Amino acid sequence: MRLERVGRRHGLRGAWILREVDLDLPAGTLVRVVGTNGTGKSTLLRLVAGVDAPTAGRVTGRPPRTAYVPERFPVALPFTAIDYLVHLGRIQGLGTAAARARAGEWLERFGA
Question: Which single residue of 6, 46, 51, 78 has CA 20 to 30 Å from 71?
């Protein structure tokens, strides 16, 4: 996947959250995004996953299946991290046991 001069702002004249981001994300590569609060980490992840569209630039080569796991869920969706991943697995056609096993593997892989 490639991000080319990607930017995101709130509203038509709102503040820029990200500007001119160029990034190559090779398939199968584990990437960690770090930074202080308010620096655009979640915005970047939402753009990569296709949850939000960039205000400027473009994202190309996005795999057909991508996902974004938010840091917090709305109160109406009381998921734990594993519950959310199991839910996503079920949407993709896995049985509950298989989805729970895969979710556990991913959480362990990410140290969560």
Answer: 6
Least confident of 8-12, 61-65, 78-82, 95-99: 78-82
**Amino acid of residue 70:** P
Residue whose entry in the numeric block shows the structure tokens 């519950």: 83
Round to whole Å and give the CA distance between 13 and 71. Answer: 27
pLDDT tens per residue, range 39-81: 999 899 989 988 889 999 999 999 887 877 777 766 777 778 8
In this prediction, residue 58 carries a pLDDT of: 96
Question: What's the token pair of residue 111?
Answer: 């140290």
The yes/no answer on whether domain 2-60 falls in CATH 3.40.50.11030 is no
Domain borders along the chain are: 2-60, 69-112
Strand, coil or helix: 93: coil
Residue type (1 letter), 75? V
